[in-house]
Design a protein that fits this description.
With 180 residues, this protein is mainly α. It is globular and about 55 Å long.
Length: 180
């Protein structure tokens, strides 16, 4: 089913974005460019989890007003915005904004994708698709630093964030095409 395949692909991209630019390159940027301490970098990364938890706790309220597809599309738009603002930042503390925004994107995308995947599969195959989903998430998480490293080698530190913002928009377009 191309719809399920597309859903798995865009979720893999979300985890690629999390592990590449955010978990790998935000600490490098904060440490080398802004001289941030390890504690400060940890707080920046923790802001992603805090915003994820806060927004995820409100997800049933959002789900009453928007479909899973809309929530996933919104998540990719927020991801692209959060990534595109990073090269423009000139102070370490401002990194809390894109990190928190990306946490919001994760909170919208992950539960919505699981719900949508469950709806798109039949009972007999649901467990298998959920296992494949977990594998795709792990694969995306593993590829993130590699892809971000390629972007960094090609276009520098700012290129990591610009290119992955483009990747988020491409995933949004693909998802929109597969699930209008």
């Amino acid at each position: 089913n191309s719809t399920v395949l597309g859903l798995l692909l865009v979720i893999g991209v979300m985890f690629l974005i999390q592990s590449g630019p955010f978990i790998t390159y935000i600490p490098i940027l904060a440490g080398f460019n802004f001289g941030a301490s390890g504690l400060f970098i940890g707080l920046i990364l923790a802001s992603m989890s805090v915003s994820l938890g806060l927004v995820a706790s409100q997800l049933p309220r959002f789900a009453r007003h928007a479909s899973e597809i809309t929530l996933i599309k919104l998540a990719f738009a927020i991801s692209a915005i959060s990534l595109a603002m990073i090269p423009l930042i000139d102070r370490a503390w401002l990194l809390f904004v894109p990190s928190s925004l990306f946490g919001v994107a994760l909170a919208l995308a992950i539960p919505a994708s699981h719900t949508l995947l469950a709806k798109l599969t039949i009972d007999d195959t649901r467990a298998g698709f959920m296992a494949v989903n977990a594998s795709v998430q792990s694969f995306g998480f593993g590829l993130g630093p590699l892809i971000a490293g390629i972007f960094a080698g090609s276009w520098g530190m700012s290129g990591v964030f610009w290119a992955t913002a483009g990747l988020a928009l491409a995933a949004l377009a693909l998802f929109h095409f597969l699930l209008p």
